[in-house]
Amino acid sequence: MTATTPLWEVFIRPRNGLAHKHVGSLHAADEVMALQSARDVYTRRGEGNSIWVVPSAAITASDPDQTAENFEPTADKIYRHPTFYEIPDEVGHM
Amino acid sequence: MAVFEALLELADDHLILGHRVSEWCGHAPMLEEDLALPNMGLDLIGTARTLYDHAGKLEGKGQSEDDLAYLRDEREYRNCLLVERPNEDFAHTMLRQFYFAAFMRPYWLAALNSTDEVVRGVAGKAEKEMAYHIRHAGEWVIRMGDGTAESAARMREAVDALHIYVDELFDSSDVAQEAEAAGILPVRAALRADWDKTVEQVFAEALLEQPQAAFAQRGGRQGIHNETLGHLLAEMQVVHRAHPGARW
Amino acid sequence: MYSQGLIGADGRTEETPEFLERFQRRIDAEEKIEPKDEMPEGYRRTLVRQIGQHAHSEIVGMLPEGNWITRAPSLRRKAALLAKVQDEGGHGLYLYSAAETLGVSREEMTEELLSGKAKYSSIFNYPTLSWADMGTVGWLVDGAAIMNQIPLCRCSFGPYARAMIRVCKEESFHQRQGYEIVMTLAQGTPAQKAMAQDSLNRWWWPSLMMFGPHDADSQHSDQSMAWKIKRFTNDELRQKFIDATVPQAEYLGLTIPDPDLKWNEAKGGYDHGPIDWDEFWRVVKGHGPMAKDRIKARKKAWDDGAWVREAALAHAEKRRARKIAAE
Predict the structure, then answer these.
(1) Minimum-distance CB partner of C85 among B25, B31, B142
(2) pLDDT-based confidence at C6, cuts 50/70/90?
(3) CA–CA gap between residue B162 and residue C11 (Å, rounded)
(4) DSSP assignment of B209-223
(5) Which end of chain C is more exposed for a tag (fewer CB within 10 A), N or C?
């Protein structure tokens, strides 16, 4: 079995004013080559003007088994949304 | 016509190196490099195309970029010897790329002041491309030079093999000198200090030493090439020449 | 480019009926499945196999077209072909990444390819013998690939679907550049036109085989359709491809090499002659004319590149050590 070259996650900012967005991953031995490869692989058609690379191993993800306990309790807190409150039309846009 | 011929020298350098780099496509050491190498090849071929087109127009005999690329023999090709050297291995390929880009970056920066509008246009695009080639090939030279015992040995071999082709980069042929005098192209000899600095920095990190001056090989600008160029051209031109006058 | 219908995947699974039913409900509701979600083992295995085969096809697919980069007859064509073959490499990379989310490494998949254990699309085991093949491969092989890939953008597995969206976006130029090459030849000298016709003669049937066996003979279609890994059957996609391609060939004045090809008004599509499935299975099983050479070329690239990859890793280790020492 050959030694494995580490995996990196690539994030690209399409243009100033937007957030970096995950676009895919690649393999590189270190962060310098990871950035260059991200440029060569993921920006061949003018996809962006800024790149982040993050070692995939550095990402901590929420557990899918805890999806319900993490995200369902928020569903009934409808008072967090503006439409929960009744404002007469005469008052105008608020 | 001196400017026409001087532009051909420059265009030939880019096409031949672009062709060499394109030979890697599908055979690189890792998939990421299968994408990086064509990017560099496409930069070089793109520059060659603009230069051929411009040269043909200046000559005024109706020669297209393809006429110039596909219908000249090795004695008529004017590229320097460095760019025609075979790929050999990844160490040779990256060092060749690094040497060439380390020369072309300051060349194009100086050409931003050319009296020729098309040359200025090419320079504006190509200086950025060469800056990236220096970085990408340079980082690989560093990794191979300061990697494993095998990679370091291969890198030293590449340095030994290629350094005899470096000096020719700084020579200006008679036609190039005319174009330089007219302010169309930059003076090659003036770029040595820049090249040395770029190479010294990377070699220091790569734990490589520049060999002592050896007898430099020259002749490309007079059409005196290594035998390898004829084979490259035979392959490149075979389809085009088999169908004279055809459109593709 | 694309792998043909999945070959040899084992969709069997051993979970409880309740679990499978729950999973199927998510699929039926068009929910996407993400890598860490619970999924039947058969679903995972099928995807690893299919995405792997697809990735391998892209990588091996670089070779037949790469064969002509150095001989492209104009600089414009040379640049376009180089960019296209580069794209295939990119597509392989995106797909390996999608498979890696399921816990299999690119190195493992590569070794399966090189050992002959993993399959790839049989189309790439045919040789490219003339410049016209660059046109035909783009037109027919990429055309067939697009038929296959567009529905995969809606595949139930999120990372695969996302990779395919990127692939399809990039791929849109491939078929057009291929068709333009064939068109230029078809409108060119008699020798060029003959080159185009010869190429179509050689690539037509292998292109139809890319969609895989007839539905009646396809072992894994049903489960893959139920899991929405696959959205259309092999025969449906093949029919769409033929119906789209025949008028394109007519426009070029080229003849499709099938004497039985004719319009069927009742079904609103073309009927075609019998496909040589013996040839198909022969090529799938590794007896295609270029099969040995393709794997040999990939193995050479991988083996010759080993010292480069090792150097990069060794250097990274030194950088890390230096950084720690400096802190």
Answers:
(1) B25
(2) low
(3) 55
(4) -PPPP-PPP--GGGT
(5) C
Sheet holding A7-13, edge to edge: A21-27, A7-13, A50-55
Rounded to the nearest 10 degrees, the angle between the axes of helix B2-22 and helix C75-100 is 30
Q: What is the CA radius of gyration of chain A?
A: 21
The position carrying tokens 């067939």 is: C144
pLDDT value at residue C2: 46
**Residue contact B143–A33, C-beta within 8 A:** yes
CB B247 within 8 A of CB C184: yes
Flag whether the ipTM exceeds 0.90: yes
Q: Where are the alpha helices (DSSP H) in B29-116?
A: 31-59, 65-70, 81-84, 90-111
The widest CA-to-CA distance across chain C, in whole angstroms, is 78
pTM to 2 decimal places: 0.95
What pLDDT score does C220 carry?
66
Q: Do A33 and C312 touch (CB under 8 A)?
A: yes
Interface of B with C in 42-101 (CB under 8 A): 42, 45-46, 48-49, 52, 65-66, 69-70, 89-90
Which residues make Cβ contacts (< 8 Å) with residue C202, sequence separation at least 6?
C126, C129, C133, C136
Chain A: nearest CA to C33, how far in angstroms? Answer: 11
